[in-house]
Structures are given as C-alpha cells and as structure tokens.
Design goal:
The complex is a heterodimer of chains A (about 160) and B (about 725).
Chain A: H1 10-17, H2 32-36, H3 38-42, H4 48-57, H5 60-64, H6 77-81, H7 88-101, H8 107-119, H9 127-135, H10 146-155
Chain B: E1 2-6, E2 25-29, H1 35-43, E3 51-55, H2 58-65, E4 70-74, H3 86-102, E5 109-112, E6 118-121, H4 125-136, E7 141-144, H5 152-156, E8 159-160, E9 165-166, H6 167-179, E10 184-187, E11 190-198, E12 201-208, E13 213-215, H7 222-225, E14 231-232, E15 235-236, E16 240-241, E17 251-252, H8 262-266, E18 270-271, E19 278-284, E20 286-289, E21 294-295, E22 312-314, H9 315-323, E23 331-338, H10 353-367, E24 372-377, H11 386-395, E25 399-403, E26 408-412, E27 415-422, E28 427-433, E29 435-440, E30 442-443, H12 446-452, E31 456-457, E32 460-461, E33 478-480, H13 490-508, E34 512-515, E35 520-522, H14 524-530, E36 544-547, E37 550-553, H15 563-567, E38 573-575, H16 580-590, E39 596-601, H17 605-614, E40 623-628, H18 636-644, E41 649-654, H19 665-682, E42 690-694, H20 700-713
Parallel strand pairs in B: 1-2, 1-3, 3-4, 6-7, 6-20, 7-10, 20-33, 22-29, 23-24, 23-29, 24-25, 39-40, 39-41, 41-42
Antiparallel strand pairs in B: 5-34, 8-9, 11-12, 12-19, 13-18, 14-15, 16-17, 21-30, 26-27, 27-28, 31-32, 35-38, 36-37
Classes of the chains: A mainly alpha (about 160), B alpha/beta (about 725).
C-alpha cells in the first residue's frame, strides 16, 4: 500500500513543465494509448495509461526507478490516437531524462553508449543494409563513425 | 432633477432639509417601495427631468422602478449597513446626481407582433410536439419538413429508451394530434430558404421540392415495379415508398429515382416525374427551430474501420437492420464515445450516446437472448432513471462492460477484430465479433443555424433558452426545440419542445413587446472614419454587424454588457446610461484622496458588497463602489479618472473565470487590466494599486478582506 503521505504531488507538475508534458493533466485514462502500444502487447509491464496515472498521482520513485519507462519505443501510435492530445512519447522521454537526472540510469542506456562509441550510432549498419540502400537509390553509409567516440570520450561520457 | 431619498422605514437618518444644489428638488420618502412611495415617484415623472432614487439596493429598487429611467444609489446595503454616516451617504448621492446629469436615458424599444402565426422548422418528434401545443393554444402553425414524411429520426428508429418501447408508442398519437388539427398546416418536402425580419414579423422563403406522387390511393402497385433500391439508414427500400407517419401518400426519392417511368405507367391515380419545385413567402411572428441532430459520419473514424468495414456500423443502422431481419448477431461490440470527447473529432460529450449504445445492447439481447454483447466505454453516463437500464444490462448473462477505449478495429476473414485494454484488469484484450456498433455523437445542423444567424459555440447555438425572459434578456422570436440546441433524447426533446412552444406563445399572445436593455450608441461618422470593426467580434451575442457600410446594433440581440464600447479605439461606441462620461462623472464625485474605488459587476461583486452590508461586516470606510454591468465595461479612462482624483487603489470585481454573465466580459477585463498595470508602472505608478478580483454574489467577507488588504498594503505606497 502507498499512503497519501508518500505521494509527491509536485511530480505531475514537474512533468507537465517538461517539453511535451503540457497536456498530461488532460488524460482521462481511456486506455487508447495502452491498447495501441506495440510494446505493451509483448511486455505488459509497459502500460502508458498506468504510467501517466502514476505520474499524476505523484508516485515519483515508483516511476523513475522503474524499468518500464525505458521500454517506450517512441513509435507515436498512442499520441496519434489519443483523444485528448497528450504527447505520450514526449512524456516518456521526459521521464527518462528525469530518471537519469535522479541517477537511475537503466542498463540499456549504458549499452547504447557502447554502441555509440563502437558504431557512431545506436544500432549497427552492415554491408547488407548498404546493398539495400543502393538498390533503393540511397547513398551508402559509413559502417563506423570513429569521431563520435572521440567526442564522447572528450565529454567524459562513459557507460 | 428630482432626487427621491428613502429612509427605508427610518433605517437611514436623513437631515431635515438636505441640500444638493438649486437644480435638485429633494423629496424624502419613508419607503419608496410602498404604494405611497411608488406613487410619489410616478408623480415626479413626465417632464424630461432625470430622476435619482436613493434607497435600498438596485436589486430591490429595479423590481418597482426597472422601467423608469433613473439612477439608483444604494444608501442602505452599501451605506448605513456598511457603517456610513450621512457624510458618506451624501457623497454617494452626489455621485448618483453627477452620473444622472451625464447619462443619456435608456430608450424604451418596442416591437409590434403584427404576424400571429408561427413557423415550426422540422417535423421530428420535437417539431411535432411544439406544433401540437401551439395548435392546441389556437395559434396558426406552419410546420415544415424537409423529408417527404414527418417523424424525423424517431420515425426511423425501432425502439426508444429508457423503456425500450417501440417508436409507435410515442410517435403515432402525436402525428395524429398534429395532422388532425386544422390550425396546423404541414408542409413536407419543404425547406426554409431564407429568413428575414425580426420578432413579430419574420418573412420566410419556403421551397417545396417535388414529391412526384400527385394523387395517391395507396394501392402500392408502384413499389414492386420500381427497379431502384436505395439504402435508407441501413435498410434498403424502393425509390418510391411510404412511411407510416404522415402524409398517407407515397413519395419518390428523387436522389435514387432514374425516371424510368414504370411507376407512372402502373399508377391508377397520378404520378408526375416532372413536377416543378415551388417557392413561396410566408410571414410569421415567431419561429420554433426543431431541426434535430446530424449523425457524426463514421467514415471519419478510419482507425475503427468506419465506412470501410460493412460490419462496423452506426447505431441507427444496426437497430434498423435488426428490426428488418437483415442481421442476426451472435457476438457484438458497442463502442461508446466513438469519435466523442476527442480533439480530433467531436470534443464534447453528446450526452445521449451512452443510452443509445445501451439500448442497442438491450434490443440485441431481447431479440437474440444467446447473443454475447460487449460494451466498451470511457465513462458510463447514465443519469437519473437511466441507471436502471445500466443495471438491467449488467444483470443479463452475456453482457460485458469493458472499461477502455478501443485503439483499432479491423477485419480478419468475416470477423471483426477489436483491440482494447481492459482497464479494470489491466490486460490487453483482442476480441473477435460479428458486428461493431459505433455509438457516435451528434453534430449541430449548421446550415439552418447559420441561416437564422444564431450565435454558436462549438457550432451549437446558445443564448436561446426558450422561455426564460429574465429582466436582462430581450424578447426573442426564435426558439429552439429538442436536439437542435444540443443532442437530446426523445424525453428531453419533447420537454424542450413544450418550453419552446410556451416561449413562442408568450410572444404571439402580445400585440407589442417592449424592452429596455441599454444598447451601445454608435457615432456613425467617427466610426466610418476609422472603420476598424474591432468591436464586432467582441460581442458575445453577435449583435454588431456592418449593414450598408455602417456599424449596426441588433437591439433584440444586444444584452447591454458594454464590452464592445471599451473596445472602440475612437470612442465612437458608448453604452447608453452607462456612458464613459456618466461613470467617470460618478467616479469624480465620489473618489477622494486615499479612497479605494471599486468597479463592481452588478451580477457578482456588487451583490457581494450588499452581502457585506446585510452581515454588517466591518468594511473600510475608504471604499467607493461604482456599479458596472460587467468588468468588461471598465475602461482605462475610468481607472485613470479614479487615480486622478487621488484614489489610493482601484479594484475591479467581477464573476469568477468561465462564469461571466456575458460569457467573456471578465476574460476581456483580465487582459485589459494586465495592459493597464504595465502602462501604470511605466508612468511610475505602483501596479499593485490596480487589482482585479473575482467574487461570488455571497462573498461579502472576501470583498472586505480584499479592500482591507488594499487599504493596508497601499498605505505605504506613495500616492
């Protein structure tokens, strides 16, 4: 049980002040976002409706320390369908930023930094991808981008 | 000038012979509201002299003297009750006298009710009910209906909620009462093309399109030979058809008819495929608008397969297909709030769709007891007795309410798949059903409303409330009945149709209607030299318009708020009886060094000051109240005038956000005060000396606190 005293009522206001969080208080919990979410279909820990509810109620630690904010893929299906104009993916980004600021970095983030240093991107581009790009009339991409590693090292960004 | 001072039965001590200058005749009365007092005021009328009535609050004085042109000075509630002695009261009265000197009287306006008949637009259940009552009252009624038959939406429905009775229970007796009344002329296939004129004398152009069937013996031989089968609200019929309402003749649906002529050949009476359309002009004294609602087009809801999947349908089509035996659902989902409460479609709640959706569930279970029915919803809104329908459904085996709005609906083979979250279990759910019913909301009939020039919000009209002729509202000749005003069910539609009939009757039963709402006077030359038209959109009632290049006020629409007057940059627009000069004259007469001048809205803050008086609260003596119709009437010159007289602070008090009597006068005041504060601080005046506050009419204590704060805090601010 969570007692009312444990709730941080400023949490919702803080999220509303972040970029994309403006409309969060308009949410009336219809569940369209949850029903639209391709991530939720595979991992029921991620439920945007429940996340927004928890934010609005002030469950700061329960949200920021959770795994689930990191699961949003940012596909924007939910915000396309939201009847109240809530920018759910932006809210998830805001929550990821707030979690990081509070020191709760998810292990996947460390993995992403490694990927950035290795490839200069958060994903690997292979010969196969370049072949497809050429077929589609797109220029080939460099497979690695060492400069990103130099920048990150200079900035002291480490996994 | 004549000044009547009331002692309010001795509550107010008036000196033996008060002196307000040689041109002011003073009469002291013990009770102005008494028979004798009223007679004394009556006796002093008639020679163009302005009257000042000093006594109790205008709230009471207006009851007896509302029709008399006078300035009222509230020396009881806001005088003695707030602890003022004769000195303070004398100042108040001087304010009233100076105001009366500068103010122009409000013109008394009249409209002759020269035409005694009434037009009812739309012969659905609301129009029929309005026409029935007006006919029974003995008025001549012209009832026009665009379709070939009366009955509107209700005639298309199978059953009506909440009882679930067939539509015939409601409609058939009503149709007979209308069609059997000689006072009522029913015109089908007829549209209103234009409406001109005003209350008491409207000129209406009607256009009657061809029915095709000229004489009919109802033999029905035309139906089997007709090769066309258009779909009417989900159910096919022939292009020549009858409906069991009125008139008792067949009609041709010319949108579907190919003019093959087979019906003409077989008809023993007379069909004319080339019947011409007719136009005629009628004159009526009042109009009842009963044009009903428009279904929200489901083709807009592409994520739900609307318009793409045949098995995804509107409630009305589903209901008719069941009644016609076209479908026999085994598993069906009703989606509530489909496209409603949604910024992308209809932002509002249409109020009746919850009940319509439940009705579809009920009639499905009544006809097919083994059917499974799911209802998905965001919130179920089943007010009043509709809760019993909700409970009846919950009690039925095979009925499942799912909290959660579906995200998408698509086809899989011959089944329809729905994805939703079941919020109550927190699980993602995929359902496969035979049919999906979209319980959509409704849209207003924009065309008719625009033709009548009714002001609207979210495209729905407002300000036309049937019979409520409160003292500040003008006589109206146009009344809204039923769902034309906002989505309504049959029960509420019928009730509002009676209300509209009563409103129309109230107008038609008079020979002349009079009203005394102050309207803005516009100096045509000054206005024409600038021609900015800034005032037009500020009117909450659409009363301002440019006619023949000249700014014109529709006196029957204007409510006298004065918001437009403040907007005019040229000072060419001023509200009669509440002119800048008049208000300023009062300010200059009452404000003095160190005073707090309060411009209080007559609907809220002014009453709060009265409340403070009734409660004998300890109001700082520096307060000087100026009564205004709305905070939206307060102009920069009035505020500047108060400061120029040495006022320490200026308070503007009005109605809370979203509750302005004139819709948005208070929000206008907010932006004006912000600007003024900036202007003041640029002049080196502390901006805290101008304050805007909201008051409920009972918040006397809040008013005292605010004035006390202002007089205390500002004591340290240099004047």
């Amino acid at each position: 049980m969570i007692t009312e005293r444990e709730l941080d009522k400023k949490f919702g206001l803080e999220v509303a002040d972040r970029y994309g969080g403006e409309a969060i208080r308009r949410c009336f919990s219809c569940g369209t976002c949850a029903a639209s979410c391709p991530v939720g279909r595979f991992d029921s820990r991620f439920n945007p409706r429940r996340t927004i509810r928890m934010v609005l109620l002030g469950m700061r630690d329960q949200v920021l320390k959770s795994d689930f904010v990191w699961l949003c893929a940012g596909c924007h299906t939910c915000s396309e369908r939201c009847p109240q104009g809530v920018h759910i993916p932006d809210i998830m980004t805001a929550l990821k930023n707030m979690a990081t600021e509070a020191g709760y970095t998810h292990p996947t983030l460390a993995k992403q930094i490694d990927l950035l240093k290795d490839f200069g991107r958060v994903f690997e581009v292979e010969e196969y991808d370049n072949k497809r790009r050429v077929k589609m009339g797109l220029p080939e991409l460099k497979l690695r981008c060492e400069e990103v590693k130099i920048i990150l090292d200079k900035l002291g960004v480490n996994s | 000038m004549i000044l009547h001072i009331c002692t309010c039965k001795g509550l107010i001590d008036v000196p033996a012979s008060p002196d307000f200058g040689s041109d002011v005749t003073v009469e002291v009365s013990e009770c102005l509201c008494s028979k004798e007092g009223r007679a004394a005021v009556e006796a002093s009328l008639g020679d163009d002299r302005r009257l000042v009535l000093a006594g109790c609050t205008p709230r009471i004085l207006e009851r007896f003297f509302g029709d008399i042109d006078s300035e009222m000075v509230n020396i009881r509630e806001q005088g003695v009750f707030l602890g003022k002695g004769w000195d303070g009261i004398e100042t108040m009265i001087r304010g009233g006298i100076e105001r009366a000197r500068a103010a122009e009287p409000v013109e008394k306006r009249e409209r002759k009710i020269s035409k005694k008949s009434v037009l009812v637009i739309g012969a659905g259940v609301s129009g029929l009910e309005s026409a029935r009552w007006l006919g029974e009252m003995g008025h001549d009624v012209v009832l026009v209906e665009e379709d070939p038959f009366v009955g509107g939406t209700v005639a298309k429905l199978d059953r009506l909620y909440p009882e679930g009775t067939p539509n015939s229970h409601t409609l058939y007796p009503l149709v007979n009462q209308v069609a059997g009344n000689d006072h009522i002329k029913v015109m089908t296939n007829t549209r209103v093309e234009n409406v001109a004129g005003t209350v008491g004398d409207y000129r209406v152009t009607l256009r009657t399109s061809p029915r095709g069937v000229i004489e009919c013996v109802q033999c029905g031989k035309c139906v089997p030979v007709c090769p066309e089968s258009p779909v009417d609200h989900g159910v096919p019929r022939k292009a020549i058809f009858a409906q069991e309402t009125y008139p008792d003749e067949y009609a041709i649906d010319f949108e579907a008819c190919t003019r093959c002529g087979k019906c003409v050949e077989i008809c023993p009476a007379k069909i004319d495929l080339d019947e011409p359309a007719r136009e005629e002009e009628i004159a009526v004294g009042a109009i009842v608008v009963a044009t009903g609602l428009r279904n929200f087009p489901i083709a807009n809801l592409s994520a739900y397969g609307g318009g793409k999947i045949d098995r995804v349908m509107r409630a009305i089509d589903y209901e008719r297909q069941i009644a016609a035996g076209i479908i026999a659902p085994e598993k069906v989902l009703v989606v509530h709030c489909a496209g409603s409460r949604d910024d992308n479609y209809l932002p509002y709640c249409s109020r009746v769709c919850c009940l319509i959706g439940m009705k579809e569930a009920k009639l499905t279970k009544d006809r097919f007891p083994n059917a499974e029915v799911y209802l998905s919803y965001i919130d179920m809104r089943c007010y009043g007795q509709f809760e019993y329908l909700y409970r009846t459904l919950r009690d039925q085996a095979g009925v499942v309410f799912l909290e959660g709005r579906p995200s998408e609906i698509f086809e899989r083979g011959d089944r329809v798949v729905v994805r939703t979250e079941d919020i109550q279990s927190g699980e993602y759910l995929e359902l496969e059903v035979d049919y999906v019913v979209l319980a959509t909301g409704f849209e207003p009939d924009r065309e008719t409303l625009a033709m009548l020039g009714l002001p609207s919000d979210l495209d729905f009209p407002y300000g036309y409330t049937g019979t409520t002729l409160s003292p500040d509202s003008n006589p109206q000749g146009i009344f809204l009945a039923g769902a034309a005003a906002f989505p309504r069910g049959v029960l509420e539609s019928v009730e509002s149709a009676r209300e509209a009939a009563a409103g129309a009757h109230a107008v038609l039963s008079k020979d002349v209607v009079t009203f005394r709402t102050p309207v803005p006077r516009i100096e045509a030359e000054v206005c024409a030299s600038l021609h900015c038209r800034l005032c037009v959109p500020t009117c909450p009632y659409g009363a301002l318009s440019v006619v023949d290049e000249e700014m014109t006020v529709d006196e029957t629409l204007c409510m006298g708020c004065g918001i437009c007057s403040v907007t005019c940059p040229a000072g060419a627009n001023t509200l009669e009886a509440w002119e800048d000069e008049a208000i300023l004259a009062e300010v200059e007469a009452v404000a003095d060094e160190g005073s707090i001048v309060a411009f209080l809205c007559k609907w809220s803050a002014y009453n709060a000051a009265d409340r403070a008086g009734y409660d004998r609260l300890d109001m700082p003596s520096e307060l000087r109240v100026i009564r205004v119709p709305c905070t939206g009437r307060v102009d920069a010159t009035m505020v500047a005038g108060a400061f120029a007289r040495g006022a320490r602070g200026v308070l503007i008090g009005g109605c809370y956000p979203d509750s302005c009597h004139y819709r948005h006068g208070n929000t206008r005041a907010v932006s004006r005060v912000k600007l003024l504060q900036r202007f003041l601080s640029e002049l080196g005046v502390d901006e805290s000396r101008l304050r805007l506050e909201w008051f409920g009419s009972n918040e006397g204590q809040k008013l005292v606190s605010v004035v006390r704060e202002m007089s205390g805090e500002l004591a340290s601010v240099g004047v």
